Amino acid sequence: MYKFIHLISAFIRQFVLPNPYINIIDSEVYADLFNIFIGGTILHFCAYILTGCGYTKGVNDPASGSFGYLISYCYVTALITTLGYFISNITVFIIVFIVLYTVSCILVVYIFNRSRFF
User: Fold this and answer.
1) Contact assessment for residue 118 and residue 108, using Cβ atoms and an 8 Å cutoff
2) Closest CA to 18 of 64, 84, 94, 69
3) Alpha-carbon distance values, 102 to 39, 62, 83, 95 (Å)
4) Residues 6+ apart with CB under 8 A from 68
């Protein structure tokens, strides 16, 4: 089951989700380059930590972790995309993103009754 969910997750992340940085960076070419070289790492790191707030490796099923990572990745992508529509100042964007992301991590910890963050 894990391999199937992992494959579907990779397909969705690669081909279905939009480039979230297109609203922040003026040029589409620069937004794509940023996503390839830096942005993908940022998305991965944020989604991994958010997943770790609700998933415990070795305790939970690997398929649920893979599905959780997909949901986290979609959430972070939607968050960046939505904030990019409304906030044009990059400093304000980063501050608002960090605050909302931190609140999201705390909420996931609370929902899954976790005593540790990672």
Assistant:
1) no
2) 84
3) 19, 25, 15, 11
4) 51, 54, 55
State the CB neighbour count (10 A cutoff) for residue 93: 17
What tens digit of pLDDT does each residue of 73-92 get?
Answer: 999 999 999 999 999 899 99
Distance (Å, rounded) from C-alpha 66 to C-alpha 11? 13
What's the token pair of residue 110? Answer: 């609370």
Statement: the pTM of the whole predicted model exceeds 0.70? yes
Host H or E run for residue 91 = helix 90-111
Rounded CA-CA distance 77/61 in Å is 25
Q: Output the average pLDDT for the chain.
A: 91
Tokens 């937004």 sit on residue: 31
Report the distance separating Cα 111 and Cα 20, nearest Å. 27
Q: What is the pLDDT of residues 11-48, one digit of tens each?
A: 999 899 999 999 899 899 999 999 999 999 999 999 99
> What is the spatial distance between Cα 33 and Cα 74, in angstroms, rounded to a whole number?
20
